[in-house]
């Protein structure tokens, strides 16, 4: 394992951080209050990100992007994690699963997505199928050479702004020793396709303005040209391309935790009770010590997992550990930050309560903490036959 | 035209500075350092001159400790073409005084023959506001300080200066030294492709001795102290009381 970042990596992180502080922070209060990102602000963030060459920087140079390695990209997302997710959605990072585009899909989806001309969303989850992705009932059946889709998806982030959605759908079932097993295919579905509706989802306590939507398919007809990857190859594209996305949750949790920590540290050094700074009380100072220790640990765990991907080493367990630990760390850190702020920590005059609410979803999406523990423990025990 | 831009590594403007226990200066160990904000404005202006076709090459130069390399990389990532690092100290706490900096810059100017030196009006650490002026004296070049607008036209430059009470516009002969003020421009972020390219741009390393300049401090720092905490204000019920209080204190 290597330690230490290069000057170049430090500069990437510093630049994104400066961008978030100047271009994202000032709009956060508005998004919190209204639950919406005004169109002109979204466009401005997107335009500036494109100008700076950061748009789709997770995509390779072969499609005109920066081609950042996993570690560099983790640094970008760590600093983005400081800011509102609703706003930094427009610091576009399309799903890298789009690299599976073939033929004219490249010009219809991949290239417009990385240029910021068309935005994507990704849909797997259904009301009846969350952690258990294979339990999905949304299905596509063959009809006169096309596919006809029926069913619904929910919790689909960013679908309100999406021009097209990458949808995972059951295209059949195989009998195995363990019972029936769904075959799954990924489809590219354009907004406006007849039989396809995107409607408002639920109001979430976390990340106001970063909406989750409901997708409905009602005899939605798609030609073969809309299949991403191979028919029945949904799990292959998922495993090839979505493997690394759990690092996003881990690294963004670290960035946000650092922002929260700075507030708590500053408050402890200013606020006086009993005639002295509350930071002088061990009850407060030791909390700060624990917070920073956990933040640094999560940071290193996450960057090490990203580095393993860059080295071409297996990283499934390490990514799961990073996602698990960083998201749970963020819960503890935001809770402690409120405690240090006393009653004011709960008031929306301070951003503490928002960070605390936002932290809650990190333990749920992209695989719950339990699912991460499942991945970690299976990785350890399966080779031993247990 | 070639533009030379001196950039200084200073304590980041967001850092809450702490005086060292022995009062000898500000504690710089383990604190975040950045490019002096006025120098960032100078780099930005140089890039704009290049984009406008008025400059061909931008050379950034930093004088100080080896770590000033990071500051130069930032200048390169913003858009400078190459950099010169002049190592003049080993200890981050040793400040190189304006006269020594100006003397080294004069030698660099001799070597590089720029048509313009664009510098910050001052560094936010010691607020000396002297280097540009001293360099102008050493070289015998014209100077325009506190620039809030710069317009280069052939062998002359029009410099709008922020002075007490308003704006003054002067015309100076090129080559010149222009020191820049806050409102000249808003520096850009480094773009990702430029960050990636910065590593490949040339960065020459020199020492103060290479230029035969003695950087021994001539000033003695007697004491460094935190500014006094501001006394709490006082609430008054109405304007009459306010006026009475002010009179009492002899302010009006
Ligand atoms: C705001 C938000 C945005 C989202 N965005 C998207 C998106 O853009 N696209 C998308 O496809 N999905 C998205 N999701 C879905 C997200 O990935 C799921 O919520 C997550 O996978 C959990 O599924 P579930 O909510 O149905 O919970 P369930 O799977 O029903 O889990 C309920 C509980 O049971 C536990 N559990 C389940 N199985 C096991 C097991 N085997 N062992 C132990 N415990 C278990 C879970 O850990 C959890 O505690 C989003 C979710 C939210 C909340
Ligand atoms: C919703 C709400 C309703 C309220 N209603 C009322 C009300 O009706 N009437 C009323 O009078 N008050 C009320 N309060 C005030 C409440 O009792 C105070 O918020 C509480 O006593 C904490 O004080 P503080 O918020 O100023 O935090 P602080 O006292 O500033 O504490 C900040 C942090 O420092 C820590 N700390 C402080 N001193 C020490 C020490 N010696 N050792 C270790 N740690 C220390 C605290 O534990 C905390 O973590 C209310 C508060 C809230 C949030």
TrEMBL record, chain A:
Entry keyword Oxidoreductase:
yes
| Keyword annotations of the record | FAD, Flavoprotein, Oxidoreductase
Protein name in UniProt: Acyl-CoA dehydrogenase
Show the InterPro entries listed in the entry. Answer: Acyl-CoA_DH_CS (IPR006089), Acyl-CoA_Oxase/DH_mid-dom (IPR006091), Acyl-CoA_Oxase/DH_mid-dom_sf (IPR046373), AcylCo_DH-like_C (IPR036250), AcylCo_DH/oxidase_C (IPR009075), AcylCoA_DH/ox_N (IPR013786), AcylCoA_DH/ox_N_sf (IPR037069), AcylCoA_DH/oxidase_NM_dom_sf (IPR009100)
Cofactors per UniProt? Answer: FAD
Q: Which residues form the Acyl-CoA oxidase/dehydrogenase middle domain?
A: 121-220
Do you know which Pfam families this protein is assigned to? Acyl-CoA_dh_1 (PF00441), Acyl-CoA_dh_M (PF02770), Acyl-CoA_dh_N (PF02771)
Q: Does the keyword Flavoprotein apply?
A: yes
Family assignment? Belongs to the acyl-CoA dehydrogenase family.
- What sequence ranges are listed for the domain Acyl-CoA dehydrogenase/oxidase C-terminal? 233-380
The source's domain of life comes to Bacteria
Q: Where is the Acyl-CoA dehydrogenase/oxidase N-terminal domain?
A: 6-117
Automatic annotation (TrEMBL), chain B:
Q: Which UniProt keywords apply?
A: Electron transport, Transport
Q: Which residues form a coiled coil?
A: none
Instruction: Read off the SMART domains from this record.
Output: ETF (SM00893)
Q: Boundaries of each Electron transfer flavoprotein alpha/beta-subunit N-terminal domain copy? A: 23-215
Show the Pfam families listed in the entry: ETF
Q: Which CDD domains match?
A: ETF_beta
Which family does the record assign?
Answer: Belongs to the ETF beta-subunit/FixA family.
What protein is this chain from? Electron transfer flavoprotein subunit beta
Please tell me the species this chain comes from.
Arenibacterium halophilum
């Amino acid at each position: 394992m290597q330690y230490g970042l290069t000057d170049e990596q430090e500069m990437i992180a510093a630049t994104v951080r400066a961008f978030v502080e100047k271009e994202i922070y000032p709009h956060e209060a508005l998004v919190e209050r209204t639950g919406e990102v005004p169109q002109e602000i979204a466009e401005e963030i997107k335009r500036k990100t494109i100008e700076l060459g950061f748009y789709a920087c997770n995509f390779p140079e072969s499609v005109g992007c920066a081609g950042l390695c996993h570690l560099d990209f983790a640094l970008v997302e760590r600093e983005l994690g400081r800011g509102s997710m609703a706003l930094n959605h427009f610091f576009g990072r399309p799903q890298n699963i789009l690299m599976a585009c073939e033929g004219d899909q490249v010009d219809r989806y991949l290239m417009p997505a990385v240029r910021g001309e068309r935005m994507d969303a990704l849909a797997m989850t259904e009301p009846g199928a969350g952690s258990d992705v294979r339990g999905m009932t949304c299905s596509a059946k063959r009809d006169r050479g096309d596919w006809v889709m029926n069913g619904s998806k929910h919790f689909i982030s960013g679908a309100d702004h999406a021009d097209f959605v990458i949808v995972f759908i059951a295209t059949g079932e195989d009998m195995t020793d363990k019972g029936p097993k769904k075959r799954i295919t990924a489809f590219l579905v354009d907004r406006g396709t007849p039989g396809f509706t995107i409607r408002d989802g639920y109001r979430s306590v976390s990340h106001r303005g970063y909406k989750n939507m409901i997708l409905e398919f009602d005899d939605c007809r798609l030609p073969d040209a809309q299949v991403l990857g191979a028919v029945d190859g949904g799990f292959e594209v998922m495993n090839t391309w979505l493997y690394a996305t759990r690092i996003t949750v881990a690294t963004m949790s670290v960035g946000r935790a650092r922002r929260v920590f700075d507030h708590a540290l500053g408050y402890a050094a200013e606020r006086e009770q009993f005639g002295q700074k509350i930071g002088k009380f061990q009850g407060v100072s030791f909390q700060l010590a624990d917070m920073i220790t956990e933040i640094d640990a999560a940071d290193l765990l996450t960057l090490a997992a990203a580095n393993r991907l860059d080295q071409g080493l297996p990283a499934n367990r390490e990514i799961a550990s990073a996602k698990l630990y960083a998201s749970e760390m963020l819960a503890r850190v935001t809770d402690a930050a409120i405690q240090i702020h006393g009653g004011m920590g709960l008031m929306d005059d301070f951003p503490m309560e928002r960070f605390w609410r936002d932290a809650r979803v990190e333990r749920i999406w992209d695989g719950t903490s339990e699912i991460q523990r499942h991945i970690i423990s299976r990785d350890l025990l399966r080779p031993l036959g247990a | 035209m070639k533009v030379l831009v001196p950039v200084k590594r200073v304590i980041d403007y967001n850092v809450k500075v702490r005086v060292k226990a022995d009062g000898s200066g500000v504690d710089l160990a383990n604190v975040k350092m950045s490019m002096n904000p006025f120098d960032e404005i100078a780099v930005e202006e140089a890039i704009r001159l290049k984009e406008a076709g008025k400059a061909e090459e931008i050379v950034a130069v930093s004088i100080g400790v080896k770590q000033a390399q990071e500051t130069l990389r930032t200048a390169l990532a913003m858009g400078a073409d190459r950099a010169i690092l002049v190592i003049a100290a080993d200890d981050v706490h040793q400040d190189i005084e304006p006269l020594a900096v100006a003397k080294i810059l004069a030698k660099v100017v001799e070597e590089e023959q720029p048509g313009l030196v664009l510098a910050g009006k001052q560094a936010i650490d010691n607020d000396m506001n002297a280097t540009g002026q001293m360099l102008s004296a050493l070289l015998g070049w014209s100077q325009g300080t506190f620039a809030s607008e710069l317009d280069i036209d052939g062998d002359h430059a029009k410099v709008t200066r922020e002075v007490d009470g308003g704006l003054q516009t002067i015309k100076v002969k090129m080559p010149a030294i222009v020191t820049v003020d806050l409102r000249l421009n808003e520096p850009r972020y480094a773009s990702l492709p430029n960050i990636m390219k910065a590593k490949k741009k040339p960065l020459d390393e020199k020492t103060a001795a290479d230029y035969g300049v003695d950087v021994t401090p001539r000033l003695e720092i007697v004491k460094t102290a935190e500014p006094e905490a501001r006394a709490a204000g006082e609430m008054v019920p109405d304007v009459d009381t306010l006026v009475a209080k002010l009179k009492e204190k002899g302010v009006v």
